[in-house]
Amino acid sequence: MAKMQMVCSSTFIAWLHGQNLICAGTPPPLSLGLKKYTDVVDVEISMLEKGWYIITYALGIYHLNLFIAFLTPKIDPAMDFDAEDNGPELPTRANEEFRPFIRRLPEFKFWYSVTKSTIIGLICTFFDCFNIPVFWPILVLYFFTLLCITMKRQIRHMIKYRYLPFTHGKPKYQGHEEATGKVIVSPK
Predict the structure, then answer these.
(1) Is 177 strand, coil or helix?
(2) What is d(CA 84, CA 92) in angstroms, rounded to the nearest whole number?
(3) DSSP letters along 32-67, please?
(4) Is the pLDDT of residue 7 over 50?
(5) Model-level pTM greater than 0.90?
(6) Residue boundaries of the structural domains of the chain
(7) How far apart are CA 45 and CA 49, in angstroms?
(8) I need a surface site. Which of 87, 137, 158, 188 has the fewest CB within 10 A?
């Protein structure tokens, strides 16, 4: 009986370790990703308080470029010349070819690059040669102007080619199409 309990408890402990490994490999939810990014912004703000304006500005521009690459599709529909007269677009009906949204910069590489650049920025703050005195309001104004122009262009691109880089929950299917194109509604 004692051997049986030892075997059962050993099996349970091994199962728990396996579950911990599985949980460690799953991607974090969006809220955790936002928490990570707010931590990065906090580091940038603390660098700003000490006068490292050029490093913070360069880091902000680099993060903006990474974010734009994260939002854009890997295969840009604007460069798809095999499309119809009115331009390429993503499928909107069930009988069209399904092409999933594949990012130009995957999420893991996005967070890896953000982390790496923030660490490099922090290392740069150890050297006084990077603490260049500048009139910081001009840098802030230029950064927000660049941010608005870039995001406006990106949002127009999303609207024009009908893609949304984010998903909202599990899809709910109403029915399916037959070969004739008639929609058959399945009971709920």
Answers:
(1) strand
(2) 15
(3) HHHHHHHHHHHHHHHHHHTT-HHHHHHHHHHHHHHH
(4) no
(5) no
(6) 29-165
(7) 6
(8) 188
